[in-house]
Amino acid sequence: MKQISFFAIALAVAVFSSSCSKDDDKDTTKPVIELHEPADGDTLFIGYETHLEMDLSDNVKLKSYKVDIHNNFDGHGHTKSATTDVAWTFTKSWDVSGLKNTHIHHHEIEVPTTINGSPIAKGNYHFMLYCTDEAGNESYVVKNVVVGVGIPHEE
Question: How far is it, in rounded angstroms, from Cα 40 to Cα 144?
Fold first, then answer.
């Protein structure tokens, strides 16, 4: 009887120890975003591409990043602007699966001049950047940008 009790205790300790070590191995660290452009207060010019530049990193592996741009006309109540201009929104995700670190530089975000024939509303917008790692941990950065008219300068 003592052998069975000792065996049961040893088995319980082994099961408990292995389940604890599996929990310890779980990735709970969020990815790191270093957004270089656009910066807070930058203008996204109507009819032109936006320069996106950043560095992404994770302690294990990255999965994707997403850009979400939406209006902030009234401090974030998302009401319609007083004109017939249409608030522009943009959402797109990119896959960076398997990478631990990556430098992103592209001009894939274009601010259109019209939506369904109506002009794009100029004003304050939020530029939100999300990064997710393979374990599902997510980080995000928010920049206040302005959508306006003009010609972007090249750097």
Answer: 5
Tokens (6 digits) for 21: 């070590």
Give the SS3 label for residue 26.
coil
CA–CA gap between residue 136 and residue 28 (Å, rounded): 9
Tens-place pLDDT, residues 80-103: 445 578 999 999 999 999 999 999
**Domain residue limits, the chain:** 29-148
Prediction pTM value: 0.77
- Size (the chain), residues: 155
Q: What angle do CA 46, 130, 29 make, to 5 degrees?
A: 160
Domain 29-148, classified CATH 2.102.30.10, yes or no: no
In the block, tokens 């990556």 appear at 102
Tell me how far CA of residue 13 lies from CA of 5, 9, 10, 21, 23, in angstroms. 12, 6, 5, 12, 16
87 Cβ contact partners less than 8 Å away, ≥ 6 residues apart: 70, 71, 73, 80, 81, 121
